[in-house]
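Listing S7. Sequence submitted for prediction.
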Amino acid sequence: MKKFLLISVTSVVLSLSVFANVIVSGDAIPDVSILPQNANAYVTTSKPIVNQEEQEKYVQNYLTNYYRVWTQKTPTYSLNELNISYKSNRFISSPGVGENLSPYTSSTFQVIANETQTGTFGKLLKPAVVIRSTNLRLMPTILPQYSDADSTPFDNLQESGIYYGTPVVVIGETQDHSWYFVQTSSDSNAWIEASDIAFVTQQQIKQVMASKSYVIANLDNQPIMNQNGVVVTTTRFGNIYPVTSQDGLKWSILGWGKKTELGRAQIISMSIPKSAGDAFPLQMTQANVANMINLQLGQPYGWGDAFGYRDCSSTQRDLMAIFGIWLQRDTEKYNTVGQVFSLKNMTNQEKLSLISQMGKPFRTLLLMKGHVMLYIGNYEGRPVMFQQFWSSAVQEGDNWIYYNEKQSEISFVNSGVQNSLAQTSGILTAINSMIILGE
């Protein structure tokens, strides 16, 4: 979940700062210089870590969820929910600052809220597709909202990124029809600019959903070209595309265009480089997961996928998508995808012991409020994880040492701790459950 900074380790540090010293370290977390930043170093077996039958079930579930909004009969988000959100809107009561760090006024967001065309909200149910990778916004505006001048780049209006080819359903709009309120299959309900989507017909839905094979992108920002060789958009690691054929150079896929005068979608033959994708799903072995992790290591942190980057949950979501495992955008809904172990009321040492003994490398998610990580094995007896994170904090006596990472890394589960007798990891302390994917 993207709100890592506000509700996890950093908030622990800030709440204790009245009673303790907070030291902001300019160095990288010590783990990085100790641990191999190559996920293949933790591979211990070549056998599949999720059997074929289990993986096929995951894929069926993935496709069902992926197209879910195109098959639902009624909206699952109501005008009443939106009104409650606006009436208690924290942006109206606490407007914060804008892109130039100048203060907003409450009226700024009240005017935006009033732009919603409430008469049709929730009565619309128009299936559509994203034709340009863009952002989902909590209010119909591209303007950012920061809590204060020290809170950049954490734009509170940024719900998530959303990418070319993603199914959505429109259930509301603004008075001028320039923004649509959409529901997504990942349960991100938010605003999108009208120019970034096109409406699809039932016939188009049937054609696309009848696809028997897919390619899943294993690289970001690779060209998606039309039949004339013109680049229409680019790939997104973890996104699937229906395949019509393939050769040694490219995957031919079903792509999307827009009849601008009508706002309707049209299906277009397109292609992506053969090296930019794998047949969906990729077999789930430790080595395959490790290779996909390596493609994401060192990627900058992006709050709510801002600027095309990833936060903690979208990193794990896109990684698991490669193997056909559907994860929601919200980490609090992960408890249905595997075997759940509660780590609540355990000491940190008990947590480490349970993770080492029961965790399955490369398929065990570790969760805390607002953050998710992937356990990938042990290094010199200490459990190790892959995570995308903004910061990490370690308590040492009365001091909190605060590391600004702002990228994806391999670290210890007791992140930042070098002397366990004198130090305590804020992340380990906050971990409250683990989920093992597969049997």
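Caption to Listing S7: primary sequence and predicted structure tokens for the chain studied. The CA atoms of residues 160 and 304 lie 4 Å apart. Confidence is low (pLDDT under 50) at residues 1-19.
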